[in-house]
Amino acid sequence: MAEEGQVIGCHTVDSWNEQLQLANASNKLVVVDFTASWCGPCRLITPVLVELAKKLPQVIFLKVDVDELKSVAQDWAIEAMPTLIFLKEGTIVDKVVGARKDELQQKIAFHSSNLVQNA
Q1: pTM for the full model?
Q2: Cα–Cα distance, 19 to 41 (Å, whole number)
Q3: Longest dimension (CA), the chain
Q4: What pLDDT sits at residue 108?
């Protein structure tokens, strides 16, 4: 697994499956950014995710380009970019569609604080 404090790009289906399995086994909150290189709002939210990854080592950030991994995007029923999916132990617990920085930060704070309380 990549070092803490960074957004982990998944560029192959095998890489995605491996990172997802490791993330789910970690019992940490996982935030998956479904993005596209041509998507303007995606480019706006990327630096926010990078900054959050640095500040929140207790959260795992994964990034999937929907054009690069079409089958993964289809499996997760991604219809708009960016879509950020929040997972705990492999279960979807929340979702943000669009480059909504405030909502993203609120949901990360909410779900990561629940992890601390449940630990």
Answers
A1: 0.91
A2: 25
A3: 40
A4: 95
